[in-house]
């Protein structure tokens, strides 16, 4: 099975080649984020966007499933789910059985699905298609990401957006600004008497000069960061081979990598860190062979990360301002290949969830018989979704950021 990981995409995409990625952008530290939360906390009522990238090309037809459609069953005799296997959402569609938590969000009206998102003249290349999604520029190649341009337009503060990954994704690279990066490594500090001593160093003393007070505050911030962000996601970081294996789906769902990323995001939001946008990711969706089991494991991991995150955010004032956007670079072909998998396709679903989202289907499900060169036709331009998110969540002018694109998908949000 071919494996596409975020690392391979970043190497091959050519996006943001002006040294931003190579320089590592702004590698932020936990104390710096805690200082920012204290100095310039996230404003009350400020919208926050969390972007979830599914690398590899998630099969939309086995995610939002037309199980009762005879054309679907005929095209995928071994891969197709039966109507009694899917989680019914109406209109002849059902969610993959691995998405039981998202089905609960759907039932509560907090999950919106754009079933057939894409762009004109689609590209089957992972690298080109992901570049298009991350730059929001289907017609011409550009070196800046759509949220990187938003950063440029809002004052060039790298803490405006944070990638919870070791490498900055191109969507966060602007012309003059790049977002901060914070890999999921956790933070361990001493315990017992040594911990008490470190904590004591952060206790303010009467009559301290400003420099000493600042040093003391740094120790206090360090302890607070450890309490908020917790221990490392694992005892050690996976090496290249382990990362490739996990992203390939062999052990997907076992380590909960996406869940660890979203835990960090939730902690930062609740701490009042002023960042307005976050990026997390899950790989392994390039399912050319043995798709059904691999994809369902990956979707189960997605569900197991998104559902508790959404419920946690619903319980706080800051969390209620959070919107999650989930996408992949393309869907898959309608017809299964000869290896119990599917090949690169075009249109696929986007998910939005949050307390500000109007739940339900936004747009028409793709036809399985009215095809373009055996590929699904898109119903919604993904830039319409981006434009609406920029406006409704980040309070930005989308036409300025999206190169004059005027489409909108306002039905995705409550009035």
TrEMBL record:
<protein>
    <recommendedName>
        <fullName>Twin-arginine translocation pathway signal protein</fullName>
    </recommendedName>
</protein>
<dbReference type="Pfam" id="PF07394">
    <property type="entry name" value="DUF1501"/>
</dbReference>
<dbReference type="InterPro" id="IPR010869">
    <property type="entry name" value="DUF1501"/>
</dbReference>
<feature type="region of interest" description="Disordered">
    <location>
        <begin position="229"/>
        <end position="256"/>
    </location>
</feature>
<dbReference type="InterPro" id="IPR006311">
    <property type="entry name" value="TAT_signal"/>
</dbReference>
């Amino acid at each position: 099975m071919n494996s596409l990981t975020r690392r391979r995409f970043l190497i091959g995409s050519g996006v943001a080649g002006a040294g931003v990625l190579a320089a590592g952008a702004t590698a932020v530290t936990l104390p710096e984020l805690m200082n920012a939360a204290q100095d310039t906390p996230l404003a009350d009522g400020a919208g926050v966007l969390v972007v979830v990238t599914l690398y590899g090309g998630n099969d939309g037809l086995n995610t939002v499933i037309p199980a009762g459609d005879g054309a679907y069953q005929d095209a995928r005799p071994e891969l197709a789910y039966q109507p009694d296997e899917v989680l019914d959402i109406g209109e002849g569609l059902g969610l993959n059985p691995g998405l039981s938590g998202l089905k609960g969000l759907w039932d509560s009206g907090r999950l919106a699905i754009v079933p057939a998102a894409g762009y004109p003249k689609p590209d089957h290349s992972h690298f080109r298609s992901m570049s298009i999604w991350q730059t929001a520029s289907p017609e011409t190649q550009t070196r800046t990401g759509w949220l990187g341009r938003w950063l440029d337009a809002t004052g060039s503060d790298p803490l405006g957006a944070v990638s919870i990954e070791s490498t900055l994704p191109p969507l966060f690279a602007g012309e003059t600004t790049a977002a901060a990066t914070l890999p999921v490594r956790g933070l361990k500090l001493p315990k017992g008497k040594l911990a008490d001593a470190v904590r004591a160093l952060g206790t303010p003393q009467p009559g301290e000069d400003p420099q000493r007070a600042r040093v003391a505050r740094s120790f206090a911030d360090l302890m607070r960061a450890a309490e908020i962000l917790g221990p490392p996601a694992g005892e050690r970081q996976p090496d290249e081979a382990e990362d490739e294996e996990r992203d390939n789906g062999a052990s997907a769902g076992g380590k909960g990598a996406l869940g660890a990323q979203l835990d960090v995001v939730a902690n930062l939001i609740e701490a009042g860190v002023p960042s307005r946008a976050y990026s997390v990711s899950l790989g392994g969706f390039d399912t050319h062979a043995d798709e059904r089991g691999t994809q369902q494991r990956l979707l189960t991991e997605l569900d197991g990360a998104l559902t508790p995150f959404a419920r946690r955010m619903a319980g706080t004032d800051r969390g209620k301002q959070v919107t999650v956007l989930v996408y992949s670079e393309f869907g898959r072909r309608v017809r299964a290949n000869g290896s119990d998998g599917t090949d690169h396709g075009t249109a696929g679903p986007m998910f939005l969830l949050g307390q500000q989202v109007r739940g339900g289907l936004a747009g028409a499900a793709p036809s399985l018989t009215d095809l373009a060169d055996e590929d699904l036709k898109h119903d919604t331009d993904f830039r319409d979704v981006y434009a609406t998110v920029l406006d409704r969540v980040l309070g930005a002018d989308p036409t300025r950021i999206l190169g004059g694109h005027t489409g909108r998908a306002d039905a995705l949000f409550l009035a």
